[in-house]
Amino acid sequence: MGLKARFNPKALVRERMKRAAVEIEALMIRQLQYAGEELVGHARTNDTYRDQTGNLRNSIGYIILKRGRIIKSEFSRSAAVRTKSENGRVRTTKGSQDGVTTGREFAKKIAAEYPGYLTLVVVAGMNYAGHVEAMGLDVLSSAENLAKIIVPRLMQQLSQQVANVR
């Protein structure tokens, strides 16, 4: 009497491959999220221009898409807008929600041009951001330079992490 396997080896291999793919995708998303947080944090704290309304700084953010669907988004009221009240007191607010809304909508528009499997889009969504940059002020250009440094490093880390997936 011979032994008969009570499992399907092909199904077992398929299940392991599926679990590995899910784990690798999660690692990829985590690296994209880290990159987005670093780049947006850098751009938001950059202090080369005076953001009078807060809209420009609040329009800086990122989205991560999976097959064109947003799976992570980070836009927030992060500006520090100083205004004087009628009695002469200086008050600091985070500006309006307008920049956040405009930035998120602009990111979605840009994302439509990049229908890849996983996509990171970092934007300054106000239509005058390019004009501010053209005046020699830094809205996103230093964040772009930072991306050229950290993204290859993150991809190397991802490669090492993927090698450890079993």
Write the layout of secondary structure elements.
Elements: H1 9-45, H2 55-58, E1 60-66, E2 69-75, E3 81-84, E4 90-93, H3 98-111, E5 118-124, H4 129-134, H5 141-163
Antiparallel strand pairs: 1-2, 1-5, 3-4
Helix pairs in contact: 1-5
Question: How would you briefly describe this protein structure?
Answer:
By secondary structure, the protein is α+β, with helices and mostly antiparallel strands.
Tell me what the structure shows.
This protein is α+β, with helices and mostly antiparallel strands and 166 residues long. The protein has one domain. Helix content is 51%, strand content 17%. It contains five helices and five strands; from the N terminus they run ααββββαβαα. It has a three-stranded antiparallel β-sheet, with helices on both faces. A two-stranded antiparallel ribbon has the order 3-4. Helix 1 runs antiparallel to helix 5. The chain is elongated, with a radius of gyration of 22 Å. 27% of the residues are buried. The model has no long low-confidence stretch (mean pLDDT 89).
